[in-house]
Amino acid sequence: MVKLLSLFGGIGADIKALKNLGEEVKTIDYVEWKANRVKAYNAMNPFRYKTQDVRTWDLKPDILVHGSPCQDNSAANLNDDKGRSQLMLETLRIISEMGEWRPLFVIWENVKGATFKKKRPIFDQYLEEMEKMGYTNSWDVLSSLDFGIPQSRERLFCISILGDSVFDFSKLRKRPMRPLDEFLQDEDEIDLEKYVVKIPSMLSRLADLATPELIEANKSKFRYVETVKTHFGTLTERPDRCPGPGVLKTSDGRYRYPTEREYWRLMGFDDADFDLMLQEFPVKEIYRSATLYALAGNSIDVQVLEAIFELLISGDYASDFISDDAGQLRLIY
Predict the structure, then answer these.
(1) Could you tell me the fold of the domain covering 2-176+300-331?
(2) Is the pLDDT of residue 276 over 90?
């Protein structure tokens, strides 16, 4: 049985990944302060959690997964830190107050901007404090494209193991990217008019409708929205922003946004999960659902977590490493 604690737990990608692997999961606790995410999590699991602030949490788990708010670490906000990036340091306080009973594994997920120069001091502090508490850290930036999902979602994963073992990311089982068609709905299944791009400001940013000369002239000002052919860009809270994850060309030559259901599929959730969401968050007939987009766009890719959990559960997750003069870990050959 895997005993799991989720801090900044979102809609529960971690428990979904473990269930997909056939593991029996005991949820020690789930901490999330946004009500919509808690509502979604409860709908997909036999729990009835309430919103909780991670700063007041004081129980003792065996395994801890946390994904603190990422907005302040994104490339768009490197000069605008509202303090959300430092919430991951609350995890340090929680672990330090556990005494001798500390989680064997601590998994932290965030945008790769957490490693950039202006944000790196916070990340380095996190790594240093984890080491002081007896953990060995290993981190890497993983792309959903390498785990079967047609989405170029790059996220930082830091895995800290209590003791001297070092998590070896090279052992993760990668999977070929699945065809995009497996994730898309047929046009006759959806109300196409609701998803067609109509806003002039968005139409003016579609790469297909701009000349190469115009794209070149504007490259220092903004990025254009690409038409999706093999895979999406990173899913965000909303698909109707520039540059966004991309648009799809319709059979009649227009362009449309991905649907809410497609968003959930691209984050590794099943249609059964999405159908539960429709019950919890009914969609008005003529509108797209900002809530359903945001819940998926802010989640962790289930398939990436599956690969991490699969390796941890196997027990064959470590390799022998030594540090070079720069303090970087490298394999002992």
Answers:
(1) Rossmann fold (3.40.50)
(2) yes
